Backbone:
């Protein structure tokens, strides 16, 4: 995967070495030799990742990172700090300033590219969700003002470790802040992960009873856990295993002996990122749902119904099974709005849609076609069955009064329904047109009735001619 990477270091040879290594892997590299230039380039060019030296004059890497994360335009750019500092306190300071990871000089090539690839994969996915959220907001589907800042909501952590001492330590560190589940068995852990809504999996890479990398691989292969952050506990002797794990999809790690503060900060970072990612994904699915549903009734809208009907007719051609369509219209609905106002009219529309929902089958698709018109698409259904459903719905509308939500208005209403069935080599436009013609015939014949139009057009047209005479 190609990406633009900003390398920041006040020592020119360090910059040139990293630039050469990254260029060989076909990354587009830009460089800066101080913090001020780094901030300017990051704002103007919006790189995909920043490799940031810590020890720089005037403005150190910690301050640069804090400013990057405070700016909404650059806050989501991953930052890897490259430093000669190796103390846990320095890593904690960097993580608290917003850094995503650390590399210690001299930089190991395998570790460098493992971290770069891992963070770039994550950024690409998050960028896609953010773009969709922004597009949905611009279209008015969702409101960005409704979003809240991410906060840890008593997150759930599953610790998978068969070392009793390590497990006790995890329990002491996490117990006050998180809901923690401890599981030494890999098979049981998989069951728990797929059935529970966890925010983080903490996995020891040093196990005598299971293959931790196999477990990480399975977590990434299951749909339910594919996006679950994985934090690993690593011994110095397990570095090769760690690098393979980074390729599999491990998000972060803590080296043993474990520094409590570093573990706490890295845990918090992963959980906040997970909650932010969940919010983006929720907004995306919500925007998709709102894009295909009618805001007043919750039924599918006309655009979705048309696409769905086209797909259903294509399937019907292969299965040789008919598709029926009902089009219904509330009789004299204009009088409701003119006499009682649009609020009462909206109440009627909502109640009408509820009655449709209780009258049709689970496999049927109900939608608001526009105004006071509704459509029900019925797959694998012949005309007699569809006519029976339409008649039942007509009676439910006519026999039970409609009440406005304020309780001040009670109305007796009826509806007219046109029904037809698909024929061979027919598209959705033609099918809907024939159902619409049946609806208009029901209205011309006096309303509060069901008119069924058979697939044989000539039969229906002859019947219309007789009715007109």
Residues:
């Amino acid at each position: 995967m190609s990406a633009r990477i900003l390398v920041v270091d006040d020592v020119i040879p360090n910059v040139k070495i990293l630039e050469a290594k990254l260029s060989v892997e076909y990354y587009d590299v830009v460089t800066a030799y101080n913090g001020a230039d780094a901030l300017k380039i990051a704002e103007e060019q919006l790189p995909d990742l920043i490799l940031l030296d810590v020890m720089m004059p005037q403005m150190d890497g910690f301050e640069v990172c804090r400013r990057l994360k405070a700016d909404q335009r650059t806050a989501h750019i991953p930052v890897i700090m490259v430093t000669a500092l190796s103390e846990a306190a320095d890593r904690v300071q960097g993580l608290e300033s917003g850094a995503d990871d650390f590399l210690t000089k001299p930089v190991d090539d395998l570790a460098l590219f493992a971290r770069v690839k891992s963070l770039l994969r994550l950024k690409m996915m998050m960028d896609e969700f953010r773009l969709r959220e922004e597009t949905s907001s611009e279209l008015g589907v969702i409101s960005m003002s409704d979003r809240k800042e991410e906060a840890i909501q008593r997150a759930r952590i599953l610790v998978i470790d068969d070392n009793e001492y390590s497990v006790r330590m995890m329990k002491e560190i996490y117990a006050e802040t998180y809901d923690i589940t401890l599981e030494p068995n890999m098979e049981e852990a998989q069951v728990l992960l797929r059935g529970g809504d966890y925010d983080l999996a903490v996995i020891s890479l040093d196990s005598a009873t299971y293959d931790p990398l196999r477990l990480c691989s399975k977590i990434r292969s299951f749909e339910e856990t594919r996006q679950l952050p994985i934090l690993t506990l690593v011994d110095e002797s397990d570095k090769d295993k760690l690098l393979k794990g980074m390729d599999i999809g491990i998000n972060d790690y803590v080296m043993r002996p474990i520094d409590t503060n570093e573990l706490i900060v890295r845990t918090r970072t992963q959980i906040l990122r997970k909650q932010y990612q969940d919010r983006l994904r929720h907004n995306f699915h919500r925007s998709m749902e709102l894009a295909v549903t009618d805001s007043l009734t919750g039924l599918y809208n006309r655009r979705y119904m048309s696409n769905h009907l086209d797909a259903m007719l294509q399937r019907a051609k292969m299965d040789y099974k008919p598709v029926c369509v009902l089009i219904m219209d509330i009789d004299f609905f204009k009088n409701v709005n003119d006499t009682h106002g649009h609020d009462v009219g909206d109440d009627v529309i909502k109640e009408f849609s509820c009655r449709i929902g209780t009258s049709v089958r689970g496999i049927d698709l109900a939608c608001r076609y526009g105004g006071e018109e509704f459509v029900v698409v019925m797959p694998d259904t012949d005309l007699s069955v569809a006519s029976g459903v339409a008649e039942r719905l007509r009676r439910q509308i006519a026999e039970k009064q409609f009440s406005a939500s304020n309780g001040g208005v009670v109305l007796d209403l009826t509806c007219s329904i046109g029904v037809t069935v698909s024929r061979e080599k027919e598209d959705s436009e033609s099918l809907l047109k024939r159902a619409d013609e049946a609806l208009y015939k029901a209205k011309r014949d006096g309303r509060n009735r069901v008119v069924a139009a058979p697939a044989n057009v000539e039969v229906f047209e002859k019947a219309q001619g007789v009715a007109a005479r």
Summary: Residues 302-468 form a domain with the Alpha-Beta Plaits fold (CATH 3.30.70.270). Residues 401 and 412 are 5 Å apart (CA to CA). Residues 145-152, 458-469 have pLDDT under 50 and may be disordered.
